[in-house]
Amino acid sequence: MSEILWNPKExxxxxxNLFNYTRWIEKKIGQNFTDYKSLHSWSTENIEEFxxxxxxxxxxxxxxxxxxxxxxxxxxxxKWFEGMKLNFAENVIENKxxxxxxxxxxESQSFxxxxxxxxxxxxxxxxxxxxxxxxxxxxxxxxxxxxxxxYVANVPEAVIAALAASVIGAIWSSASPxxxxxxxxxxxxxxxxxxxxxxxxxxxxxxxxxxxxVADQLKEKISSxxxxxxxPSPSGNNISSINFSWHDMLSLSVSDSIKYAALPxxxxxxxxxxxxxxxxxxxxxxxxxxxxxxxxxxHKLHCNFKPGDKxxxxxxxxxxxxxxQLSALASGVSVYLYDGSPAYPELTxxxxxxxxxxxxxxxxxxxxxxxxxxxxxxxxxxxxEGLENLQVVLYTGSPLSAAGYKWIYNGIKKDVMLSGISGxxxxxxCFVLGNPILPVKAGKIQCKGLGVDVAAFDxxxxxxxNETGEMVxxxxxxxxxxxxxxxxxxxxxxxAYFNEYNNVxxxxxxxxxxxxxxxxxxxxxxxxLNPGGVRIGxxxxxxxxxxxxxxxxxxxxxxxxxxxxxxxxxxxxxxxxGFSLNQLIEKEIKSTIQKHRSPRxxxxxxxxxxxxxxTRSGKPVELxxxxxxxxxxxxxxxxxxxxxxxxxxxVYRDQLEKYFRxxxx
Length: 665
Fold this sequence. Notes:
Elements: E1 4-6, H1 10-14, H2 17-29, H3 36-45, H4 47-58, E2 62-64, E3 68-70, E4 80-82, E5 85-86, H5 88-93, E6 100-106, E7 120-122, H6 123-139, E8 147-151, H7 156-168, E9 171-175, H8 181-191, E10 195-198, E11 201-204, E12 207-210, H9 212-221, E13 227-230, E14 244-245, H10 246-250, E15 263-264, E16 268-273, E17 283-287, H11 288-302, E18 310-313, H12 320-326, E19 334-339, H13 349-356, E20 361-365, H14 366-375, E21 392-396, H15 402-412, E22 417-420, E23 422-424, E24 429-433, E25 440-441, E26 447-448, E27 454-457, E28 469-473, E29 483-484, H16 491-497, E30 505-513, E31 519-524, H17 538-544, E32 551-559, E33 568-575, H18 583-596, E34 605-608, H19 622-629, H20 645-663
């Protein structure tokens, strides 16, 4: 039984959007719901009615009403809201809000923002700039269906450019500026962008990196590019006059009068890319209607966003959370764009940024919270002043242990909703996420999303409760991809999600639900460990190490040694400063894992590495480690944030192979 760490008080529950929505839907359908579980059951048993009524409840702006909600329950192939015409940008910026919409923040102690750089935009200003940018793009020849790319830092102009593309009906795709030229071209060559926006610089860990040279290389490598537009420099550095600038584009517009393109519900809005750690990154196309309807549901009902709230989600433009946070503007939320390292000058500095800006909703990764806990395991309770406005802490990207949950409640704030949210680039949203009317249990995500028929399946394809299984979705969602790029007859799409079970989406995560719908995700199911035929989620091992002050992080993978048939677990650890891995510590790591988990969870070998290998969005890459151990070629090392770590693992692999080949019979 998981410990309950937070329970919303009755007056707080009654003031939530979800509570008011429930009363509204009860009147609409003439049915009462005793709890969230019964509401969720209705929403998944009646998905067409649920989504149609949510369009009404949310006030989505459309030009033409749909002729039917759903054409088929077949996946892939289900089409939502046929006949509806709408525009994503219109739903985001057409409002009467008069407060702050965007604010740019960065590492204040290492970077001086120029007084000429515009760091804040009201909603009225945002609308004006988006429309002027859209007119500028049209003047440059951009039309409906064209691809616009961004090689951009987390700056206001990136948001404006993405929304401007949507006004016209162009498709936006962005990469963060830490991508090297090869990783960037792997993506851009698939989409053939007509226009590319480029940040002239970005900051990380007090260092400023110039990107103009990359812009010059892009012109040579991507033949489809007609214009590269250089964004303003936050530092005020001069940009070479030979480049076409953001202000040059805006000057092409003599007014801000432009009509929003009325587009089909599934008209492409974004092209997202898989991490590319196991091969070339796959281009995933998401539709405008599915994105806005799903994000509005998640933001209003599950995150309890209200007009005037302040969201800071630490993300780069290459992670889906950037697109997710952009949609918060549609709920009247002020979006704070943090550009730089979350750990400069101190690992916990980002919490001070949250306090200084009176943020109501703060989002980060599970890994960041775990790192803060490891750095300050005995944080003086509630010592960070100024968090009175903080209502919700969101995390995603990697699991968060029960100890990580307790660290938040014991050290950061007692009365706060800690919401794990999990879905991914595949649906640009969540399967499981937070809930403002439910308790928070240690280590568990609060609920299944409304309208989302998500479950855990065992090996026979039967739903399982209180046992780990494959995360699946049994019915279509509006936010499922429109298509994959370069995918004849949807072969890639089908292979990615529908090969395991007929007409059931298999997501690839290893999850466990309890009777109330709370869940724990144990990592990627295709990275599941299998010693002695027993399936073990990697996160089960990681969370067992929380109490060990000398272990900063860990990553595990399964390996079948030469001349053997059974898989063994290899654990790679990053030691905290001042500690080195030795036999005594190795023995304690193993005994701790056995104590908290089982003998099956204990790794056969433990090795120390300098950093955890992660994707550019900070996710652990167990599959890549597994491939390295198998001596499989890693074709796309540029997808990793720190590919040099692979060499350390290769050294250990070679040592293991040599030992087993010559010493084990």
